[in-house]
Design goal:
Mean pLDDT: 89
Shape: globular
Radius of gyration: 14 Å
Strand order of the largest sheet: 1-2
Largest sheet: 2 strands, antiparallel
Distance between the termini: 44 Å
Structural class: mainly alpha
Helix content: 55-70%
């Protein structure tokens, strides 16, 4: 039996990543994007779902103003941290 589940918080972070990083003046290379996404996801509550109904309920919750603000705040914080010590360019 295959077990299928997904953390929808990943989708929410990815959807907002470019806009927030660009707005923060952060580098948007692949390494920085990966680091910012990982940092933000580690500071946000995961939203795992295993059914279509669960996916719809979590997506509805994500449209609440506080949920969106939490995602943007986590990405902004991550962009500042990564921007201070970017991984790109290191050998």
């Amino acid at each position: 039996m295959a077990v299928e589940y997904r953390n929808l918080m990943e989708d929410f972070v990815i959807q907002n990543l470019n806009a927030v990083m660009t707005g923060a003046g952060c580098c948007t290379c692949d390494a920085c994007k990966s680091d910012v996404a990982a940092y933000a996801l580690n500071h946000l509550t995961p939203h795992y779902v295993a059914t279509r109904q669960g996916r719809l309920m979590v997506k509805l919750q994500s449209y609440e103003m506080q949920s969106r603000a939490d995602v943007v705040a986590a990405i902004s914080e991550a962009a500042m941290v990564v921007g201070k010590s970017p991984r790109h360019g290191r050998d």
